[in-house]
């Protein structure tokens, strides 16, 4: 066993701590001017080589079969079907495009054979066995056809077509035309029967490069007021509740409303659904006097102006004739509604009113 002896705490030797210092790194020497010049020259050479190499790489890119393409003309060229083709061969025609607006397919094998026949090297297919070709076309639909017919009716027959529509025969006739046929469609060789209102014409684009024979019936329209929302009986018409729509004149009758403001403030006389064509009598001015309401009876002549309190036996709107009871005399009078809670009696009710007024004054 080894005995270990420890000195008392007071006998420990004093330890001197020195601060920790980080050694300073030696400063890198500045590059020599010659070295900087060589680095700059190397950078310039790299940029020049890159500018020359990138176009060279692009020029040497292998011809590759394009994906599905859209043909704008009736001929498909080598450049339409294969990318990275030399400019001298890009415009060489290969195949006829599908009909306007239709889609067809071409086997990759046939494209490669045609390209080889023009002296082009191998063509990468990317695993495609065929490509789809869609023929772009301008479609002249029913709306554009109708505009052309209306223009022909205005110029050739002097008709005002702003309130007319044309019901074309058939289901939505349309005409396909090449994209390069710009401009508006025109109606030529037009025939119009004023009694039957039938019209026929040849709608054409360009110098008859695309044309379609169409026919139809000219329908005269009328602007009518249509409810934008449903109304309950007694509900007033407010701004925005009515909109103007064009409807065939023959089918709407003569009593339809043609203004969105004439009926404002009037109340529905029955329940009216949304989309309903408003007719005269569907709405009326609101009642200004209610049944059982206390009213002011007015009697006025050039020399006399009297007013008495009464009770209305009827409800009535402005100008309506109602029966009222003179509260003072208990007589029933016929009066005309002249305002909210106010009615007027003619000379026939004058003596009764005068007597009632005098009796009231004596009391």
In short:
The protein is of the alpha+beta class.
Task: Describe the secondary structure blueprint for this structure.
Elements: H1 33-59, E1 64-65, E2 69-71, E3 75-77, H2 78-81, E4 82-83, H3 87-90, E5 93-96, E6 103-107, H4 108-117, E7 130-135, E8 138-140, H5 142-157, E9 164-168, E10 175-177, E11 186-193, E12 198-205, E13 210-227, E14 242-248, E15 267-268, E16 283-284, E17 287-289, E18 294-300, E19 305-312, E20 316-317, E21 321-326, E22 332-339, E23 342-345, H6 350-362
Parallel strand pairs: 2-7, 18-23
Antiparallel strand pairs: 1-4, 3-5, 6-7, 8-10, 9-13, 11-12, 12-13, 13-14, 15-16, 17-20, 18-19, 19-21, 21-22, 22-23
Task: Explain what the structure shows.
The protein has 363 residues and is of the alpha+beta class. Among the domains are: 68-136, eubacterium ventriosum atcc fold, CATH 2.60.480; 140-221, no CATH class; 287-362, Roll (SH3 type barrels), CATH 2.30.30. 20% of the residues lie in helices and 33% in strands. It contains six helices and 23 strands. It has helices spanning 33-59, 78-81, 87-90, 108-117, 142-157, 350-362; strands spanning 64-65, 69-71, 75-77, 82-83, 93-96, 103-107, 130-135, 138-140, 164-168, 175-177, 186-193, 198-205, 210-227, 242-248, 267-268, 283-284, 287-289, 294-300, 305-312, 316-317, 321-326, 332-339, 342-345. The strands form eight sheets. Strands 9, 11, 12, 13 and 14 form a five-stranded antiparallel beta sheet that branches. Strands 18-19-21-22-23 form a five-stranded mixed beta barrel. It has a three-stranded mixed beta sheet with strand order 2-7-6. The protein is elongated and about 120 Å long. Residues 1-22, 348-352 and 357-363 have low confidence and may be disordered.
């Amino acid at each position: 066993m080894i005995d270990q002896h420890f000195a008392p705490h007071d006998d420990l030797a004093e330890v001197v701590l020195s601060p920790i210092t980080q050694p300073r790194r030696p400063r890198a020497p500045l590059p020599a001017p010659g070295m900087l010049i060589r680095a700059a020259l190397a950078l310039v050479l790299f940029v020049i080589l890159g500018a020359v190499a990138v176009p060279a790489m692009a020029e040497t890119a292998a011809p590759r079969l394009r994906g599905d393409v859209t043909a704008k003309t009736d001929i498909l060229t080598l450049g339409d079907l294969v990318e990275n083709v030399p400019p001298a061969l890009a415009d060489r025609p290969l195949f006829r495009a599908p009909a306007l607006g239709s889609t067809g397919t071409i086997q990759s094998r046939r494209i490669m054979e045609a390209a080889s026949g023009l002296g082009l090297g191998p063509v990468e297919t990317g695993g495609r066995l065929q490509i789809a070709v869609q023929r772009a076309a301008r479609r002249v639909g029913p709306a554009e056809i109708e505009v052309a017919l209306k223009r022909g009716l205005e110029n050739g027959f002097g008709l005002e077509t702003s309130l007319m529509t044309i019901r074309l025969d058939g289901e939505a006739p349309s005409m396909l035309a090449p994209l390069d046929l710009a401009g508006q469609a025109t109606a030529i060789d037009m025939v119009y029967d004023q009694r039957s209102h039938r019209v026929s014409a040849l709608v054409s684009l360009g110098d008859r490069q695309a044309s379609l024979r169409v026919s139809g019936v000219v329908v005269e329209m009328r602007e009518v007021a249509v409810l934008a929302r449903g109304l309950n009986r007694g509900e007033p018409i407010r701004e925005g509740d009515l909109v103007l729509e064009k409807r065939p004149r023959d089918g709407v009758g003569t009593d339809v409303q043609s203004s969105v403001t004439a009926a404002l403030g009037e109340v529905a006389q029955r329940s009216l659904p949304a989309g309903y064509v408003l007719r005269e009598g569907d709405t009326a001015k609101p009642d200004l006097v209610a049944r059982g309401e206390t009213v002011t009876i007015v009697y006025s002549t050039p020399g006399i102006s009297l007013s008495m309190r009464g009770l209305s036996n009827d409800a009535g709107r402005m100008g309506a004739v109602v029966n009222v009871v003179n509260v003072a005399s208990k007589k029933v009078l016929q009066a005309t509604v002249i305002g909210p809670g106010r009615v007027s009696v003619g000379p026939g009710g004058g003596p009764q009113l005068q007597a009632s007024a005098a009796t009231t004054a004596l009391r």
